[in-house]
Write a structure and sequence with these properties.
The chain is mainly α. It has 22 helices and no strands. The protein has helices at 17-40, 48-59, 64-67, 72-103, 109-130, 143-157, 159-177, 182-187, 193-213, 222-249, 256-261, 268-292, 301-329, 334-348, 352-364, 367-382, 389-423, 429-440, 444-468, 470-479, 485-503, 508-536. The chain is globular, with a radius of gyration of 22 Å. The chain starts with 16 loop residues before the first helix and ends with a helix.
């Protein structure tokens, strides 16, 4: 049985010759899968579990060099590679460059690709530096990461754990086949109950607002307003957490703060520095994008400066919101939050070309951040939950390097294939939504609705506090139209509450394994049905 770590064990390196080859190969596969599916079906599947299964199968090939892949840590690097490439190619790169193509501004495709690629790398680097900090703790839920880790552990250990995971996966496949959102159901077993309850309520309101109240919350910009208010308060809460911690650390004689600090591998001082450098990096990327996109000739000097500051701030907040939602629920509303950025940019009065670059830049941030969080959560569990700090940090660094290599592979894949996709009319559907929104314009009524609904969003986020994220998760639910997901979340929370009342805390581990099975089964079902639909097309 493979142990998490022995005294003599060192974490495998991504630069081992065969490991590098295998991870690049799986990254190419992940990039192709992501591009194919996002252009034909408009979705990006989570391929992490597929990568883990590939690594497990390789380990069973009776050739000596493949035997190394019995190591759960090598399997973890493979899943990191394929998932990074999938989300990087589809969400962070192809979606942004599809916007200028749909607008008819083909000369802006290359500037947009350069800006999106830089944003993607900054995105992943920031999560690496913020993971296991006070604002993005390793103890956070990160549901897809838990599911992948449990799948790898079950494959390694076998026994009751594997049987329970298998039952969950079978339930996930069956439930998904019957139309139940098993990812939502599984997340309810392991996430923050308060946050997920608001997430479920938001999903239900989005689904039933018309039959129950006779209004379409989306057309009234209620979700967008809620997210603006909640997102701004969330940003303030993050700042307050860090500032409060600094005040507590001021008396050098106090040993309590230092003891608490040891529970995180990223100190508050390092977190503050990372957040500051992150904003500066986004500002630099926005400048590169604006200059390459020729915006200096499109706008006045004052408007140009305003664009740079707003683009950097929007990318910064977008990343935090997407990260918070991904950590608590496993869902990240990257498309919707980018749309919010676009609407605010329209209200400011940026010209159409600037708006196209703005929404593409915003859309490029967030997905890589969330995916890196999922991958590092998987690794954190596999490495024993951080009990050995040195081993954890070294393994995390190997995952980060693996992810950055995979993002590089994704960039090369997009660079050499996007012309073929666009020539065949294959563009991510969400790009059409963005461009139609720019063409339709906005009005004072939209601004009024955004401001009006930002107030309750801010209040809800304030009341829930930074640990529950009620406002952000409620707004996330409102932004997602997924029939049945709301009921699945609420049902899962009710079952979880009853089981814990009856069985007590000892039921938490079996429930988490079952939840991982549900999420894994749903991911496998989505992946294979998506591939089947694509093959039919």
């Amino acid at each position: 049985m493979q142990q998490h770590k022995t005294d003599k064990e060192k974490h495998p390196s991504i630069f081992e010759p065969f490991a590098l080859f295998l991870n690049i190969a799986t990254a190419v596969i992940g990039a192709v899968i992501g591009m194919q599916l996002v252009t034909t079906l408009g979705i990006t599947p989570n391929t992490a579990i597929i990568g883990a299964l590939v690594a497990m199968l390789i380990a069973r090939i009776p050739i000596r060099m493949f035997a190394k892949y019995k190591s759960i840590h090598r399997q973890n690097l493979v899943q990191t590679s394929i998932s990074s490439a999938t989300f990087g190619a589809a969400n962070s790169l192809l979606i942004p460059i599809g916007i200028p193509f749909v607008m008819g501004e083909t000369d802006l495709i290359m500037p947009m690709l350069i800006g999106a690629a830089l944003a993607m790398f900054v995105d992943a680097a920031l999560l690496y530096k913020l993971f296991d900090s006070r604002i993005f703790p390793a103890s956070g839920t990160w549901p897809p990461g838990v599911a992948t880790a449990e799948s790898i552990i079950a494959g390694d250990r076998g026994g009751k754990r594997a049987a329970l995971l298998g039952v969950g996966a079978a339930g996930g496949l069956l439930g998904s086949y019957l139309g139940v959102s098993m990812s939502a159901f599984g997340v309810a077993f392991i996430g923050n109950i308060w946050a997920l309850t608001m997430f479920g309520i938001g999903l239900l309101l989005r689904q039933y607002s018309v039959p129950l109240f006779g209004i379409d919350v989306n057309k009234m910009f209620i979700p967008h307003g809620f997210m603006i208010g909640a997102g701004l308060v969330a940003l303030v809460q993050v700042t307050m957490i860090i500032m409060k911690r600094k005040k507590q650390e001021a008396p050098a004689s106090s040993g309590t703060a230092a003891t608490e600090e040891e529970t995180y591998t990223r100190s508050d001082r390092e977190t503050t520095r990372t957040l500051g450098l992150g904003f500066a990096a986004y500002l630099a990327v926005a400048l590169v994008l604006a200059v390459l996109g020729g915006l200096m000739t499109e706008m006045s000097a004052g408007m140009f400066v305003a664009f740079l500051l707003f683009a950097a701030f929007a990318a910064y907040v977008h990343e935090l919101i997407v990260g918070i939602a991904a950590m608590h629920s496993g869902w990240f509303p990257a498309f919707a939050v980018a749309l919010i950025t676009l609407i605010i940019g329209m209200l400011i009065g940026f010209p159409p070309v600037a708006l196209g670059l703005l929404v593409g830049f915003s859309a490029a941030t967030g997905p890589a951040f969330a995916d890196m969080g999922y991958d590092l959560k998987t690794g954190h569990i596999l490495r024993g939950g951080g009990k050995d700090r040195e081993f954890e940090l070294h393994g995390r660094k190997q995952q980060y390097i693996t992810g950055m290599i995979a993002f590089g592979v994704a960039l090369v894949a997009v660079l050499f294939t996007y012309k073929g996709y666009f020539a065949a009319g294959l563009v991510p559907p969400v790009d059409t939504v963005y461009v139609k929104t720019i063409e339709a314009g906005t009005s004072p009524e939209v601004a009024k609705q955004l401001f009006l609904w930002a107030i309750p969003g801010a209040i809800l986020q304030f009341l829930g506090g930074p640990s529950r994220q009620l406002g952000v998760l409620f707004a996330t639910g409102l932004l997602i139209l997924n029939p049945g997901a709301g009921w699945a979340v609420i049902a899962g929370i009710l079952i979880r509450t009853i089981v814990l009342k009856v069985k007590g805390r000892e039921a938490e581990t079996p429930m988490s394994i079952l939840a991982a099975g549900f999420i894994a089964g749903d991911a496998l079902y989505s992946f294979f049905t998506s591939v089947f639909k694509f093959s039919k097309k």
